[in-house]
Amino acid sequence: MRYADLHRRSIDDPEGFWLEQAQAIDWIEAPKRALFDERAPIYEWFSDARLNACWNALDRHVDGGRADQTALIYDSPVTHTRQSYTYRELRDRVAQLAGALKARGVGKGARVVIYMPMIPQAAEAMLACARLGAVHSVVFGGFAARELATRIDDARPKAIIAASCGIEPGRVVHYKPLLDGAIEQAAHKPEFCVIYQREQEVAQLTPGRDLDWHECQFGVEPADCEPVEGNHPLYILYTSGTTGQPKGVIRATAGYLVALAWTMKNHYNVNPGEVFWTASDVGWVVGHSYIVYAPLLHGATTIVFEGKPVGTPDAGTFWRIIQEYGVVSFFTAPTAFRAIKREDPAGEFVERYDTSSLRALYLAGERADPDTVIWAQEKLKVPVIDHWWQTETGWPICGNPQGYEPLPVRIGSPSVPMPGYDVRVLDEGGNPVAPGQLGAIAIRLPLPPGTLPNLWQAEDRFVKSYLATFPGHYETGDAGYIDDDGYVYIMARTDDVINVAGHRLSTGAMEEVLAGHPDVGECAVIGVADALKGQLPLGLLCLNKGVTRDHAEVVREAVTLVREKIGPVAAFKLAVVVDRLPKTRSGKILRATMVKIADGDTYTMPATIDDPAILDEIAAALHGIGYPAR
Ligand code: COA
Ligand code: AMP
Predict the structure, then answer these.
(1) Is residue 357's pLDDT more than 80?
(2) Which one-letter DSSP state was computed for residue 82?
(3) Distance 275 CA to ligand 1 centre (A)
(4) Residue 302: which residues within 8 A CB-CB, separation 6 or more?
(5) 569 CA to middle of ligand 1, Å?
(6) pLDDT of residue 608
(7) Any idea which ligand is nearest the CA of 500?
(8) Packing angle of the helix pair 551-565, 145-155 (nearest 10 deg)
(9) What residues does ligand 1 touch, defined as CB less than 6 Å away?
(10) How far apart are alpha carbons 190 and 350 in whole angstroms?
(11) What are the Cα distances from residue 65, in Å, to 57, 68, 140, 258?
(12) Residue 295 preceded by cis peptide, ω within 30
């Protein structure tokens, strides 16, 4: 019961608990207070302190005896590259890049958008911003120019740091034309761009705006760490909401570092000097927290992996990396394991490698289905730890504290709330439900340090999106239940957000794009079950009156349109033309009912349906494209 007591204490005495955890961090001015609740329900942590995130991630380890330890390993099966950087090398590279940015006027509070693939330079760019107190905003490479433009207009960056290209199996992703297109579309223009030229594709630089990564660093003075206040934003990370306008999640510096520091040993069971590997992307929150900041903060070695679980070159890549670098804790999304399991069901590749360094596998980003968890447990012979979190929280809401007190794993549950998270299940009226009963999952305010204090320049939206439905609580947008022993189960989203291959996507954003097709009068996008990716988006299109074109052609155009406007990451490949959409009498589209039809689940006829016959039409149309698939 040690962990239960610790959790209790974190809820009963947040001030004492978090001030104690704050000792893991180097401060320029130590915090006198933890929680700042004067503006409740807007909360801040450690606002009276001063520190620097880059110092904590790099310099202090260089000074503290880890200068020659490997900080970062770059392993890229797609370019056949392996490189490693010591803490000293990484600190020097980051200080030099920061110097180049500083020389061009990037200082505390300036925003810098980063659009890069999984290369060490992406982490360097993030840390260089942190060094200057500049606020980075990393945009995932799988997003198209329009999505990048939306983020540029919201963050209004002084500079953009990008690479010339990314490499996806079988194709080169031309980042530079995407960047140029985004800057052209955006109303806000950055003062300059820094372009890292990769040898796979050297991009054309725009004179007067684009600087070469190496050239701009030549002869500049390396920059020192700029002290920032505890509540200073370290980064803005955009995530899908219910509309096409993404939400700019703010991450305040001090609380984030304090919370991450707690998790490294207590949750992920990693000691300084050991190798921790997260196979994700720096464009996602998981990458921010557990590829870049947390492992470095902890003096561990992190791995930047540019590849896929399968096909780069085979389903043994993960095991090769674990063996080669002696990974002790490994974190990825369940979809990656589903991909491996599909290709190597018997686990023959696992047997070819020595994975004995591994203590546990951590899965998050989407629901970990029992088949995948059991397969991973059997093949790797280590505990498989499902844990639940969101871009908004920055670190796990629920997990299993492997380094503090490993709790029994219950398959299907990401275990129990982490420190500071007072997780509740509520009914529609905001009343707590009994154990085992399904409801909306909410967290009693204040949220712990590290979680979002606000949305970037959108406080009203922050309050409306998260704090209004259940006063005194943060609404997670997930539904589920808590069992008699306090284990939490995450069952579904309560909004129009879907989860495709561990990537969070907005069906509303896809609908906005589809509605822009000249022949589409009305549309709905739903998330249907998929054996590999968990969910896939499926579009139902009603064409304008008088449109007599071939439906297959319209569907092809619709698919292309979403890829062009949102990006390949949307994985939008399924659409069907229907005559009408099922609605309630008040005109609300019955998306959830259509999901049930597509998934082959039983459903009850919604009492408010306008015309029940439409559901048969939808079922027939879905049947025509192979749904239900099982
Ligand atoms: N830049 C450009 N394009 C990208 C990209 C990037 N960084 N990442 C993905 N894409 C593209 C893919 O090439 C694919 O394009 P395609 O339609 O031309 O094939 C498309 O976006 C969809 O990508 P994805 O859904 O990831 O599918 P995939 O077929 O490439 O790979 C998996 C499937 C399961 C191997 C892969 O999704 C995976 O490894 N997922 C891990 C999930 C993860 O790390 N989640 C982060 C949260 S922890
Ligand atoms: P993101 O903000 O991209 O990290 O996505 C967060 C969402 O992913 C959550 O709100 C959940 O819907 C889902 N999610 C993340 N981790 C889990 C998990 N372990 N189990 C179930 N769903 C999860």
Answers:
(1) yes
(2) E
(3) 25
(4) 71, 72, 73, 123, 275, 276, 277, 278, 291, 292, 295, 296
(5) 6
(6) 86
(7) 1
(8) 40
(9) 117, 141-142, 166, 168, 173, 280-281, 284, 286, 308-310, 333, 335-336, 339, 364-365, 500-503, 533, 568-569, 571
(10) 47
(11) 14, 8, 34, 21
(12) no
Q: Determine if the pTM surpasses 0.90.
A: yes
Start-to-end Cα distance in the chain? 43
pLDDT of 231 higher than 70: yes
* 493 touches ligand 2 (CB under 6 Å): yes
CB 279 within 8 A of CB 309: yes
Task: Say yes or no to pLDDT of 630 above 80.
Answer: no
Instruction: Determine the distance separating the centroid of ligand 1 and the alpha carbon of 341, expressed in angstroms.
Output: 17
Segment (H or E) for 172: strand 171-174
Q: Is the pLDDT of residue 299 over 80?
A: yes
For ligand 1, atom 5, name the residue with the nearest CA: 142
Going by alpha carbons, the residue nearest to atom 39 of ligand 1 is 336
Q: Is 387 in the pocket of ligand 2 (CB under 6 A)?
A: yes
- Cα 138 to chain centroid distance, Å, stands at 11
Would the pLDDT of 196 be above 90?
yes
Q: How many CB atoms lie within 10 A of CB 71?
A: 26
Residue nearest to atom 31 of ligand 1 (CA): 308
Report the alpha-carbon distance of residue 55 to residue 62 in Å, rounded: 10
288 lines ligand 2 (CB under 6 A): no
Ligand 2 mean position, distance from CA 384 (Å):
17
Residue 366 alpha carbon to ligand 2 centre in Å: 5
- Residue 471 CB coordination number (10 Å): 9
Centre of ligand 1 from the C-alpha of residue 464, in Å: 32
- The dihedrals phi and psi of 526, each to the nearest 5 degrees, come to -125, 160
Pick from 211, 350, 360: nearest CA to 276: 360
Write the pLDDT tens digit of every residue in 83-131.
999 999 999 999 999 999 999 999 999 999 999 999 999 999 999 999 9
**Rounded distance from Cα 181 to ligand 2 centre (Å):** 31
Q: Is residue 369 within 6 Å of ligand 2 at its C-beta?
A: no
Cα(6)–Cα(23) distance, integer angstroms: 17
pLDDT digits (tens, 9 = 90+) for 503-542: 999 999 999 999 999 999 999 999 999 999 999 999 999 9
Residue type, 31: P
Contact of 486 with 412, CB cutoff 8 Å: no
Domains (ranges, CATH) in the chain?
86-226 (3.40.50.980), 501-624 (3.30.300.30)
Residue type, 331: F
Give the integer Cα–Cα distance in Å for 518 and 90: 51
Alpha carbon of 510 to ligand 1 centroid (Å)? 17
As given in the structure block, the two tokens for residue 43 are 């909360």
**Ligand 2, atom 6: closest residue by C-alpha:** 390
- Residue 435, pLDDT score: 97
Cβ proximity of 347 and 318 under 8 Å: no
Ligand 2 binding pocket includes 480 (Cβ within 6 Å): no
